[in-house]
């Protein structure tokens, strides 16, 4: 269905615009609530642009794997100290 057909369907077009505005508001609220997201994305893009890997997907996998390794190390330290973790990288209360 092309845009002209959508625009001719007033009810469908209105529902589309309402949903679009709702999603935009939800996404903005999420990004605002998680300022670390902008830093993470910015750091990742800089990493890729500077290194210019041939395989961007593998580079992304390797880049984000380091965060998983850090989380696993934190959980191991917590367990060694006698703290239980809840599988999310945070200590269970």
From TrEMBL:
Chain intervals with Acidic residues compositional bias: 69-82
Recorded superkingdom: Eukaryota
InterPro entries the UniProt entry points to: DD_CATIP
Example of a GO biological process term: actin filament polymerization
Bias-annotated ranges (Low complexity): 83-93
Disordered: annotated segments: 66-93
PANTHER family cross-referenced by the UniProt entry: CILIOGENESIS-ASSOCIATED TTC17-INTERACTING PROTEIN, RIIA DOMAIN-CONTAINING PROTEIN 1
Name listed for the protein in its UniProt record: RIIa domain-containing protein
């Amino acid at each position: 269905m092309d845009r002209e057909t959508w625009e001719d369907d007033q009810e469908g077009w209105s529902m589309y615009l309402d949903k679009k505005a709702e999603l935009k508001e939800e996404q903005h609220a999420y990004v605002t609530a998680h300022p670390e997201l902008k830093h993470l994305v910015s750091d990742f893009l800089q990493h890729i642009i500077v290194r210019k890997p041939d395989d961007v997907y593998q580079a992304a996998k390797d880049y984000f794997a380091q965060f998983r390794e850090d989380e696993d190390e934190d959980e191991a330290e917590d367990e060694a100290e006698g703290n239980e973790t809840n599988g999310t990288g945070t200590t269970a209360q």
